[in-house]
Write a structure and sequence with these properties.
The protein has 255 residues and is α/β, with parallel strands linked by helices. The protein has one domain: TIM Barrel (Alpha-Beta Barrel), CATH 3.20.20.70. It is globular and about 45 Å long. Strands 1-2-3-4-5-6-7-8 form an eight-stranded parallel beta barrel. It is built from ten helices and eight strands. The structure holds 2-phosphoglycolic acid.
Length: 255
């Protein structure tokens, strides 16, 4: 599973270039690929879907559609200036939603209580795939309390029935910094995350765990080779269609 998170980047021209670069570079695949553009551009991705249909024909239908997702959702609606409600995303046929990104936690003061409300709302929606981001800061990493921090962030799923529920492990210090943990350390943390979710969720789900934080087409293979890395959540490197396609291709040939 490979997901692009464009954050607050992009533009109409860029979407066209990105689409043709992605299509020209992406090899046939049969796993989940998604893109979360800024909300205002979601409808422009109908263009992309059209192009991908053409590509599908070219590759004997081996290429699955690219899934379009939300970078975040508002679990409520009504008098909430500036937000986009989960119902609106549902109406658009959005396939996945990212929640709990560290930028939401840091810049918009989102805490476990709010993130839990979002998970409950998503569980009652037609949005199939939910991606919960968790990760420790540099300071927490230096103190050696990464697992405690992750366990606390994962309390939001305690006793819940989870379906199509994915975790993205994104160390805050690795996001946009060019720094990453060692692949072996990522693997160990992913195993830990799977164990915690399995023992705490009501239906004992073993979730897919994606790695996020400075993933590029240069380092992706080193992560994908690890047993418990089930894909990537890609920020900066997803803004270039060719680079993102390369990452998808690397996953295709490594897993
Ligand atoms: P990055 O961002 O790939 O630019 O480090 C990842 C993320 O924040 O999801």
């Amino acid at each position: 599973m490979i997901i692009a998170n464009w954050k607050s980047n992009g533009g109409l021209m860029m979407i066209q270039d990105w689409t043709s670069d992605f299509i020209n570079s992406c090899s046939p695949k049969d796993f989940y690929v998604g893109i979360a553009p800024p909300v205002i551009y979601i409808s422009d991705f109908s263009l992309l879907e059209w192009d991908l249909d053409t590509l599908k024909e070219k590759s004997n239908n081996k290429i699955w559609d690219i899934n379009i997702g939300a970078q975040d959702i508002d679990h409520l609606s009504g008098s909430r200036t500036g937000t986009v409600s989960i119902r609106m995303f549902e109406e658009f046929g959005i396939d996945f939603a990212i929640i709990g990104h560290s930028e939401r936690r840091e810049f918009f003061n989102e805490d476990n209580d709010l993130i839990k409300q979002k998970i409950i709302a998503l569980n009652n929606s037609n949005i199939k795939t939910k991606i919960l981001c968790i990760g420790e800061t540099k300071e927490e990493n230096d103190k050696g309390i990464t697992k405690d921090i992750l366990k606390n962030q994962l309390e939001v799923v305690d006793a819940m029935e989870l379906e199509n529920f994915i975790i993205a492990y994104e160390p805050v210090w690795a996001i946009g910094s060019g720094l990453t943990p060692h692949p072996k350390d990522i693997n160990e943390i992913h195993k830990y995350i799977k164990d915690v979710v399995q023992s705490n969720s009501a239906n004992k789900l073993i979730p897919k765990v994606l790695y996020g934080g400075s993933v590029t087409d240069k380092n992706a293979e080193s992560f994908f080779k690890e047993e418990f890395v089930d894909g990537a959540l890609v920020g900066g490197a997803s803004l270039d269609g060719k680079t993102f396609a390369n990452i998808v291709n690397i996953y295709n040939s490594t897993k």
